[in-house]
Every structure is written in structure tokens, then in C-alpha cells.
């Protein structure tokens, strides 16, 4: 198959959010800590009516209806998530209930998980299936979704929730650039979920931030090396990437990630004219550079204009929804396609940086080769973000407490108000005495 990649995508996010300015006041932190310090405006969240299966069903069913795709045409379905509600039964198998009416039960693929990276691995699997001798000519769906919740404290404002459904196949408008890919994986305890009785991760915030930056270094460098070897690029750098979409735990980290790519360009070609202002960092070793705030700030300043052009348009969803773990980088892509008209995207290269704690990371890219405006209008991102319901921080806290109390519940009927769910949303009706879950749809 030729030009394998993303044919279409749609996103799902909860109908309710908490405002980050109000959350700063409520939490008694200094004004600007969440909005400027983390770069976040709003945070989406779910009550006990939504779980990972319902979020995925909402994303998939709405995708199929909006784009008019038949379940009978799908030969592979991959799910990337780290929101685990069952240690054995995959979310993919729950999604198979959506296929029942079509009579199509011959659907390969299963869940893939490692923190925020599972969706990327799922996408690679789907694209590789279509490109391989195993392909049977049908299309693939990739679902990346998570409910990101943290214990109250410094990490809580970096939560969020959302899911994305992606159609993968040949002759795609966004063709994956095989084999341009730089991957970095290592063993690190920066963010993990060892406590099965809790929905919350165990997080070493500062370590997770350094790990993200180290993963940028390694995977971006590996990507540039591939550009040099495979695409014969001379002195490859950020100038070879028209747009760069990042995994966004919060948008401030993305600003730092972009600046870090420029730092890596500087390390490769310190004499390049663009680096006149940062020569004082020539002798700083890479190890020393991690904690160096002066260096970080200098590269953020140096890259302001490039960041505004190449990355800022991809942050609309992240800033207004929060972290969506596996889905975050694809919400970045959805934002970019929504914010930049096809006339500007036509023929351009879009690079993605995916990071999952623990850690797994890849930098890779797509080439835009056909009209993306239908995707943008189908997603309708800005309007949907504007049409949500604002909830006070006090009520948000009550809902977080409810989720905490009812995590792993058995013989339980959720109490959340279904009136505030949007049409088309799947919701949890009941968990029976054997932990079997029943769902309805608004
Ligand atoms: N106005 C403006 N900026 C402010 C203000 C203020 N009033 N107060 C603080 N800030 C700035 C700080 O200077 C700091 O900026 P810097 O990053 O440029 O140094 C930033 O806000 C963050 O503040 P800190 O006090 O350093 O950190 P905090 O205790 O708020 O925790 C953290 C931040 C560690 C990211 C926390 O939210 C967390 O643990 N989140 C979860 C882990 C995470 O998301 N990691 C990222 C990668 S891994 C992943 O994707 C899950």
C-alpha cells in the first residue's frame, strides 16, 4: 500500500471543565501559577458516569457516524490507553460491542500501554499492518484515550480527559513518512501507577520533566540522523520541520520541548548564524544543561517566532482540556489541522513528538498530501470547546472525591447527572456484583 497514514480523525472530550484562574484562587496558590506557570486555561474532567470504555465508545461511534464509515470495513482496531480498569480484559474488546450489528468480528489489534505513549505505538502498529504482507485490504482504527487525574496537590491542575479516533489506511491525506522515526526508551520511575487501588499515578514531577527533555534530546537527534541518512538532508534541523506537535502534559512543557529541539540544533551546528545569541552555552555539557534555567530561557527566547509559527496552533485543545495522556499528541494534531487552513498545510511536513513516562518516546512525521479541511470542519474543535459547561472548583473537587471513593467499585450505580452529557455520549449505567459494566448512550 502507498502513502499509508491518517485518513481522518475526530476527538471526544467531556462536556464540563474547571477554569484554571478559579482553580488558582480556590487552591490558594499565587495568581498565574497554573495559567502562566503551566500555560493552562481550562481542565476537562469526568464524574462517575464516564470511564475509559465509555470515553472510547463515545469517540469511536461519533467518528463512524460523522464520517459515514462502516464497521464492516474495519480490519484492525488498536487502542492506546493507560486508564486501566481491568488487568485482563482489554478496552478493545469492549469496543467490539459497537461492531456487533455489522456482524464483523474479524478485527485484529488489542490494547497497548505505556503511560502517554500507547496511542503512538497503536498508530505505528496500524500503519505497519497496512504496509505489510499481513494487510487484508481493510482499514484500521486507532483509538487513544485517557482520563488523567492526579491526587490533590501540585500535579492536580495538570489533569484532563479525552479520546481520539483515527482512521488509518492507504492513500491518506497525512502520509506517515516511513522510515523517518527517532525512538528513545529507558527505565525510569518518573510517573507510574503501581497502586491498583487508586486511579492516581505516583509522580516524581521534577524527574518527569527532565525525563521528557532527555527524551526530546534522544528521539529528535535520532530523527535528524534519519533525515540525514535516508532523506539526504544536509545539516538537518528544525527548519526541515514545517510544524512540530508535542505531547502536552501542560503547554509550558511544550514551549520548553520546542526550545530544546533548537538547543539540539545548536549542539549539532554551533556556528550556524541563527545561534549568534547563545554562544555563551558552547561549553555547557549536555548533563549540565538539564537544570540550567538560564540556558532554557535563552533558547525559549531564541525560538519565540519559530514556536509561534510551527507549534502554537497545535495547542488549542491542550490549553483548554489539559493532559489527555495517550490522546494528547493527537489532540495536538487535531488542533493544528483545525487552526491552519489546508492552503498553508499543503505539501508540508508535520513532526510529532510523543512521550510516555517510564519511558518511551518517538519523534516522527507526516507529509500533508491531500485536503485536510473536511477533517477540520468535522472536528469543529473551537466551537465545541466554547460550548462546554463551567463547573466551580468546589464542585470539581467533590466530583474528584466521588471518583476516588468509587474507583474499583462493585455493585454500584453511578450518581452523576446525565443531563450535562452531550448527545452521543456513552455513560456508565451500572457496575454489577461481578464488576461487569453496563452502558447507555445519550
Ligand atoms: N506566575 C507565573 N509562573 C509561576 C507562578 C506564578 N504565580 N508560580 C509558579 N510559576 C512557574 C514556576 O516558576 C515554574 O516555571 P518553570 O517551569 O519555568 O520553572 C512553573 O510555574 C511550575 O511551578 P513549580 O513550582 O516549579 O512546579 P509545581 O510544584 O507547580 O509542579 C509539575 C509542576 C511538577 C509539572 C506538576 O504539575 C506535576 O507533577 N505534574 C504531573 C507530571 C507531569 O505532567 N510531568 C510532565 C511530563 S510527564 C507526563 O506527561 C505526565
From TrEMBL:
First-tier enzyme category under EC: transferase
Q: Which GO terms describe its molecular function?
A: hydroxymethylglutaryl-CoA synthase activity
Give the residues annotated as active site. Answer: 82, 116, 247
Keyword Transferase recorded: yes
Q: Does the keyword Coiled coil apply?
A: no
- Which Gene Ontology biological process is one annotated for this entry? farnesyl diphosphate biosynthetic process, mevalonate pathway
Write down the EC number.
Answer: 2.3.3.10
- All copies of the Hydroxymethylglutaryl-coenzyme A synthase N-terminal domain together span 1-173
Residues binding CoA = 208, 252, 256
Q: What catalytic reaction does the record list?
A: acetoacetyl-CoA + acetyl-CoA + H2O = (3S)-3-hydroxy-3-methylglutaryl-CoA + CoA + H(+)
Which Pfam families does this one have? HMG_CoA_synt_C, HMG_CoA_synt_N
Top-rank lineage group of the source organism: Eukaryota
SUPFAM superfamilies annotated for this entry?
Thiolase-like
Q: Which UniProt keywords apply?
A: Acyltransferase, Transferase
- Function text: Catalyzes the condensation of acetyl-CoA with acetoacetyl-CoA to form HMG-CoA.
Its family remark reads: Belongs to the thiolase-like superfamily. HMG-CoA synthase family.
- Name of the protein in question: Hydroxymethylglutaryl-CoA synthase
The species this protein belongs to is: Coemansia biformis
